[in-house]
Amino acid sequence: MNDLRGERLQIMLSPEELSAIDDFRFKHRMPTRAAAVRELLKLGLASAEIVTGTGLKSANYGVLGRSPNGRNADEGDGAD
Predict the structure, then answer these.
(1) Which of 18, 24, 25, 51 has CB 3.0 to 4.6 Å from 30, enough for a Cys bridge?
(2) How much is the pTM?
(3) Has residue 44 been placed in a domain?
C-alpha cells in the first residue's frame, strides 16, 4: 500500500461514533485513529460492494444513527 496519501478527508463525528472507532482501534491493535478509519472504510466498502445510485440522502447514513431504511439503528426492522 502507498504510504503517501494524496487526499485529506475531514469529517465530523458524534461522541458515540468516535468511541466506536476507538474501540475498534484498540481491539484490533491499530496504531492510529486514521489507520482504524481506513480499515473500517475498506471493510464497509467491501461489504456494501460499492452500491451507488440508491436515491438515499446523506442524512440516511450514520454509524450509530439512522439506517438506510430511515429507522434508528437500534429499532430493528419492525418485523416483530
Answers:
(1) 25
(2) 0.57
(3) yes
Three cell numbers written together for 52: 451507488
Q: Which residues contact residue 14 at a Cβ distance below 8 angstroms, ignoring those fewer than 6 apart?
A: 62, 64, 65
Do 61 and 18 touch, CB atoms closer than 8 A? no
Tell me whether residue 33 is in a domain.
yes
Q: According to the model, what pLDDT value does residue 21 have?
A: 97
The answer to whether residue 80 is domain-embedded is no
DSSP the chain: --SS----------HHHHHHHHHHHHHTT-SSHHHHHHHHHHHHHHHHTT-------GGG--SSSB-TTSSBGGG--S--
